Amino acid sequence: MATVTDLWGDDPRIEIWRDGEPAADASCVMLWVQRSQRARANLVANLAVELAKELDLPVIAVFAMTPGFPSATLRSYHFMAEGLATLADDFAARRIGWQLEIGDPVERIPVAARKLGAAAVITDVNPLRIGREWRRDVADVLEVPLVAVDSDVVVPSSLFPKEEYAARTIRPKIYRVLEDYLHRIPDPLPPVESFHREGPDPLGALDAFDLDRSVAPAPDRHGGSGIARDRMRTFVAERLATYHEDRSRADIEAGTGLSPYLHFGQIAPMEVALAVRDADVSQEAKDAMFNELIVQRELSINNALRNPDYDRYEGLPDWAKKTLAAHASDPRPEVYSYEEFDDARTDDDLWNAAMTQMIHEGFMPNRLRMYWGKQILRWTESPQDAWEIAVRLNDRYFIDGRDANSYANIAWCIGGRHDRPFGPDRDIFGIVRPMGMGAMKRTFNVKRYIEQVRSRWG
DNA sequence: ATCGGCTCGCGCAA
DNA sequence: TGCGCGAAGCCGAT
Questions:
Q1: Cβ within 7 Å of strand B: which of A 167-186?
Q2: Is the CB atom of residue A271 positioned under 7 angstroms from any atom of strand B?
Q3: Residues A316-332: pLDDT tens digits?
Q4: Measuring from the CA of residue A167 to each C1', which nucleotide is nearest?
Q5: CB-CB neighbours of A316 under 10 Å
Q6: Which residues of chain A have pLDDT under 70?
Q7: Is A410 helix (H, G, I), strand (E, B) or coil?
């Protein structure tokens, strides 16, 4: 049989992590579910099915839920586990088996592959450092090929091999090939049905995990592909038509609210993009949505993939680090400690309201995510401190913390990433674009937003 | 209410 | 080598 490089090496959506021929006399094709935590509209599952057809084998999906993820909170794990809880049935509907492993994927995945007699392991692409280390370490000990499919972007990330400078540099490249990639993802069935089902209930398994339980599950925002799809349909039916006008408003629900679902791969960006494309709304509304869903999101993913310091202050553009250094000793109007930020105890009612929503709901409207980050820069001793505090709060409270989008957002706020310099040179910010209360008042009813948060959370 | 200038560097035209 | 213009700002002039 041919090697996986012979089979798929030229496909821009495929990464070969361990080359070789799929094992002969195997019992299944193993689908290592990591980032694409869904059974449908899943190009990873589809490649596993393609190979299974070739070999006349069943497909078994395996997820390794690690109890040891750094500073993990109950909130993000609970959301993920709610999504995983439906996967056994969702995969069964595609004749695919299911196994939930508890433990470090680097240990559990190779063991599961051996026990299940996998011909090869097919997984998803993850742009973050830890995800890439997992794939590298699994590939090192695996005895069969490991292939990853870039299933959570519309345009494959490999088409952008260099670090993109800004939205304006990646946008034309995306639109040039968008038609080639914007297609409905089918749900083909493997030739042999698997009835394999093993492992605990994921929500119950969390009881034994060492999680930070002071960050409670988000109310009214439950994980799962079905819920994600419902939310997408509601957005398209009720809010997409005015998205280009309303997207910056925090005082009404204007966005999709899909970012946590996209983060855990419970919905494919392709599904959302097609629902938007096919909706009966103005081109202006569609363009505005595509800009967020495809251009900015895939720009953030490019940043994580191509900038080795995407989650560190050092990774900011040189012009920004230079100007921030020149203003490092400027006096700050206020300086707050991490604890004061974490308690939403600044002297700014809007910032506190945004932080309060983040603490309780694991969510913040997109416009406020900018204001929130810009003020942290204004109110800390150094831009390095601002970076550390923003990342720490982000990863602690947002359901979709530790996302490529989070790092790009914080990098935009603090260090002009994907932005341009903005004169004149001013205190603290230098020529990094400032943002203050004026910009907020110009775009939405600040008082109304604060009252909404207070009525919900005191 | 609207407008220009501030400031840097990418990418394209030439 | 020159030039247009850019993730969504701010300030002052008109």
A1: 169, 172
A2: no
A3: 999 999 999 999 999 99
A4: C7
A5: 24
A6: none
A7: helix
The CA–C1' separation of A176 and B13, in angstroms, is 20
Tokens for A154, please give them. Answer: 């519309």
Residue A175's contacts (CB-CB under 8 Å, 6 or more residues apart) are none
- Report DSSP state, residue A34: S
Give the number of residues written for chain A: 458
CB atoms within 10 A of CB A279: 16
Integer CA distances (angstroms), A37 to A271, A285, A443, in order: 14, 29, 36
pLDDT, residue A71, reads: 81
Instruction: Return the closest-CA partner of residue A127 out of A19, A40, A15.
Output: A15
Give chain A's radius of gyration (CA, Å): 22
Average pLDDT over chain A reads: 97
The answer to whether the beta carbon of residue A436 comes closer than 7 angstroms to any atom of strand C is yes
d(C-alpha A21, C-alpha A13), whole Å: 19
Q: Is the CB of A438 under 7 A from strand B?
A: no
Residues 226-255 (A) near nucleic chain C, CB < 7 A: 247-248
Q: How far is the CA of A43 from the C1' of B6 (A)?
A: 47
Closest nucleotide (CA of A295 to C1')? C7
Task: Kindly list the distances between the CA atom of residue A208 and the CA atoms of A135, A250, A297, in Å, as whole numbers in the listed order.
Answer: 26, 38, 34
Instruction: Please tell me what DSSP assigns to residue A399.
Output: T
Q: What is the rounded (10 degree) CA torsion for A65, A71, A73, A76?
A: -60
* Reported pTM: 0.97
A window 308-327: Cβ near strand B (< 7 A)? 318-319
Identify the residue whose Cα has the smallest distance to the C1' of B9: A420
- Number of other CB atoms surrounding residue A427 within 10 Å: 12
Tokens in use for A224? 């799962």
A420 touches strand B (CB under 7 A): yes
Angle, helix A349-361 to helix A446-457, in steps of 10 degrees: 40
Q: What is the pLDDT of residues A61-104, one digit of tens each?
A: 999 999 988 789 999 999 999 999 999 999 999 999 999 999 99
Query: Which of the nucleotides in strand C have any atom less than 7 Å away from a protein CB atom?
Result: 5-11
* pLDDT at residue A158, rounded to an integer: 98
pLDDT at residue A1, as a whole number: 79
